[in-house]
Amino acid sequence: MDIFKDRLVLAMTRRHIRAAELSRLTGLSKARISQYVNGHFMPKSDAILKIAEALNVSELWLLGKSSDMTPESAQASSVPDGEIPCPENISPLRLSRYPVLGEIACGLPVLAVENTEGGYVTAADTEADFCLTAKGDSMVGARIYDGDEVFIQQTDLVQNGEIAAVVVDGEATLKRVYYYPEESKLILTAENPAYPPLVFSGTELNSIYILGRAVAFQSRIR
């Protein structure tokens, strides 16, 4: 059972397919998929077939009876002349479009202006609600550069240390967030030592709210 669980998780990771998506592709309930992923139950042969087809892997490989991940149907077919087999670390790209909220400062705060006409495209499994265009160099330590598209999952609560889009006095900035409720203090830190932390406390917190956490970004090759 452990071999099946480990290879199921490996195949889901390589194919960039989450449990909810695997449930949809196989017609198996999310609860059953969760049980398989956690190694609580071993699926029957019909379920193994559905999972193998959805993940495009070999049933025998899933069961630990083969070292070849390639589906049996693909193993039986020959590669036409001039074609190169697709490496295991390359997966098809599924895309989704997210609305643009505007520009967000990676430096001093700037106003985020809504722009619903545009949009950016990223992988479909990115759990975001909108994206912002980064400006400045304060987040270069997190590999976020001027002009990068930052994808934001909308929420008004983030964990300490997470990168978030934060509105301060009507202006938006991208920083790591640290909140100390016992001191009524909020610290926004950059990923560039040239920028000092932004510290807010007491009534200053009334003019600050979180747009959401940064979950992904797209960068151009420079």
Question: Which features characterize this protein?
Answer:
434 Repressor (Amino-terminal Domain); 31% strand; Umud Fragment, subunit A; 222 residues
Architecture blueprint of SSEs:
Elements: H1 2-14, H2 19-26, H3 30-37, H4 45-55, H5 59-62, H6 72-76, E1 95-105, E2 115-123, E3 130-135, E4 149-154, E5 163-168, E6 171-180, E7 185-189, E8 198-201, E9 208-218
Parallel strand pairs: 1-3
Antiparallel strand pairs: 1-2, 3-4, 4-9, 5-6, 5-9, 6-7, 7-8
Distance between the termini: 46 Å
What does the largest sheet look like?
A: 9 strands, mixed
H/E element order: HHHHHHEEEEEEEEE
Radius of gyration: 23 Å
| Main sheet strand line-up | 2-1-3-4-9-5-6-7-8
Spans of 5+ residues with little confidence (pLDDT < 50)? 110-117
What is the tally of helical segments?
6
Indicate the percent of residues in helices: 10-25%
Strand content: 25-35%
Q: On the 0-100 scale, what is the average pLDDT?
A: 80
What does this structure look like?
The chain has 222 residues and is an alpha+beta fold. It folds into two domains: 2-76, lambda repressor-like DNA-binding domains (434 Repressor (Amino-terminal Domain)), CATH 1.10.260.40; 97-218, Ribbon (Umud Fragment, subunit A). 22% of the residues lie in helices and 31% in strands. It is built from six helices and nine strands. It has helices spanning 2-14, 19-26, 30-37, 45-55, 59-62, 72-76, and strands spanning 95-105, 115-123, 130-135, 149-154, 163-168, 171-180, 185-189, 198-201, 208-218. It has a nine-stranded mixed β-sheet with strand order 2-1-3-4-9-5-6-7-8, with no helix packed on it. Strand 5 and strand 6 form a beta hairpin. The protein is elongated. The N and C termini lie far apart (46 Å). Residues 110-117 have low confidence and may be disordered.
